[in-house]
């Protein structure tokens, strides 16, 4: 994978994130040389979801209240059903995501996390993908749904599911290396 030494990536999550959708990108981005921080409205630890039960705890590196998009090069939004549903009701989380977009930074969402891109207005007019059950949500929000492992539209990366995480992680690395994107505000 391409080297992104010196880059800093935020992973925004709360309890109920899909375990692999946080841990795989976190590991791959670190292996590529990035500093990766888990940001959450919670402090201490958050717990993932695996299959039909709670998964493993993950350390929160920085509380959302102390995080600023200007300190990072990209944001990764893991899915699962619980995590993005909780975050889309959190105005501070939505503002944090919008700031990445407005600053032209990479915004990456997998599985159900495109719900956050719907809530922020970022997805409107973009080509995107997500978990099969949110296809209608994406279409109704103005996205052109594409059933591919990874879809990128001007630095906004979306992906479908855990089996696509290698391609998702590789695309995040590629977009971070590419740098800022010129965009209109969400």
UniProtKB/TrEMBL annotation:
Domain DJ-1/PfpI: 7-175
InterPro entries for the chain: C56_PfpI-like, Class_I_gatase-like, DJ-1/PfpI
Keywords of this entry: Glutamine amidotransferase, Transferase
Record-level Gene Ontology MF annotations: transferase activity
Gene3D superfamilies with a match to the protein in the record: 3.40.50.880
Keyword Transferase listed: yes
Family stated for the protein in its record: Belongs to the peptidase C56 family.
Protein name according to UniProt: Type 1 glutamine amidotransferase
